[in-house]
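pls ignore typos typing on phone
flavin-adenine dinucleotide + seq
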Amino acid sequence: MRNTLSRRRLLSLFGATAGLSALKVDARAAPDTPWDLLVVGGGNAGLPAAIFAAERGARVLIVEAAGQIGGTLWLSSGQMSAAGTKLQAAKGIEDSPQSHYDDIMRISKGTADPQIMRLAVFNAAETFDWLMDNGFDVRDEHPITGTTHEPYSHARYAWGKDGGRSILRVLNEQLQPHIDAGRVSVLTSTEVTALVQSEDGTVTGVVTRDATGSTRLHSARNTLLTCGGYASNAEMFEQLEGARDYADVSYPFSQGVGITLSVAAGGYVRGGEHHLPLFGGTLASDAYPAPMIGSARPWPPERPPWEIYVNVRGERFLREDIASHDAHEQALLAQPDERCWVVFDEEIFSRAPQLVRGSFSGGWTQEDVRFAFDDGMNMFFKADSIEELAAAAQIDRDGLLATIADYNRGRADGQDRFGREHLPLPIAKAPFYAIQLQSWLLSTYAGVAVDDTLRVIRKDGSAIGNLYAAGELLGAGQFMGRSYCGGMLVTPALTFGRLLGQEFLELA
Ligand SMILES: Cc1cc2nc3c(=O)[nH]c(=O)nc-3n(C[C@H](O)[C@H](O)[C@H](O)COP(=O)(O)OP(=O)(O)OC[C@H]3O[C@@H](n4cnc5c(N)ncnc54)[C@H](O)[C@@H]3O)c2cc1C
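k done
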């Protein structure tokens, strides 16, 4: 685990799950009889794989490092995207997987993996319908085109009333009968530490270590790695994405163990070059990775900018009112340390709609923001002059002075340097304010290479016998290239789990 805060956060999370029916777990692992399927990680992708494999009569063992199954669904907003669903049809929305595919290629500028992404979007509707048929409780106004990422051309973006937990509730209900019938066993607080391979590299089982430190061998005819990404492993993050992991916002068990296991077994990793940060994180400190305490990431059509964004040189780098999350993210990527400051004055602070929100929604009032400045909270800077503001925030003084003068001039002339049209007020009246905004990520871009039936492959394209992978372990870069496309981690994870259990795994 990366730090004690993550542990604490995890415990408090699990303490707050009273609404979710607990799974009755019967762990009857039999080391001498190979399991038909051994699932490493009982999260978003692993649970549907177990459910659908069990429906085919398979004996399944789920090995889960955390104290409970569910994985990132405990934290995730659970936003899904699927085209051609029954829900869309019921609401008169005409859509198709091809349109979904084309949208992702448009948003990612052709950088998503055509084969993997196609497999995900052309099978997404069936997954979404299955969840709905089994009680998935979607927000009334959904599906929508989306506002937290680049909008889709059609309303195909939907999420549960209780975020990822709405999905987990359905998965738990579908899994429980298989546990009761003895088809599925679950070992929690047990981590897989190694894969066992025969001479020709075929995977024949795994080694586990439980909370007491005991190790054990489990044989299996099929091993499926669904143990998530590496967003809580700062070292691996830097190694694979060539960037720093600044924000501590991910699932603490996302340690990248699946990457290590796959590579040790002969697989390889791809996609880290697609690294793209999210915009507008307010972190608790600069002791990275630091908890995220708020965000300033407004959607310009809903809350046009009154402020400017500057980098450490004091330069603007973006047309702030552009209606594109992607433009914000790509521009941030090019800034030193993926960092910027949002700068404004007293007049703007008093008259503009609230800018800072909680990490994902709500949580902050305008009074909280004012208190943060007055109290000298980390990342919140207030000063009587621009020179003093620059010194406090450690932004280049001359750069900031020149930029504010240039912005005010461009605003007065109606000739903004970046073509910005929303220019309600100059930055002129003391006190002056700056909030340091840092990049953040929820998930990770690099992942294990697989073929079109999700078998882990070597660099020469050959498959490692009996070893499969799905979920974030494949890397966000496969599903959305260097971009963010709404729902394109949760939905593919569930879909690939379903496809593996239903079709791809050789269970007979
Ligand atoms: C806060 C947050 C919000 C998000 N919101 C969205 C969203 O709205 N839409 C979207 O598409 N994506 C979203 N994502 C990303 C998405 O939720 C994840 O990519 C996805 O859920 C990952 O699914 P998974 O099955 O690959 O991994 P997980 O669901 O994380 O499951 C992996 C499981 O493996 C276990 N594990 C790890 N190591 C081991 C080991 N050695 N042995 C045994 N078990 C192990 C873990 O404990 C975990 O239970 C969000 C992510 C976060 C953190």
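Residues 1-30 have pLDDT under 50 and may be disordered. The domain at 278-440 is CATH 3.90.700.10 (Flavocytochrome C3; Chain A, domain 1). more later
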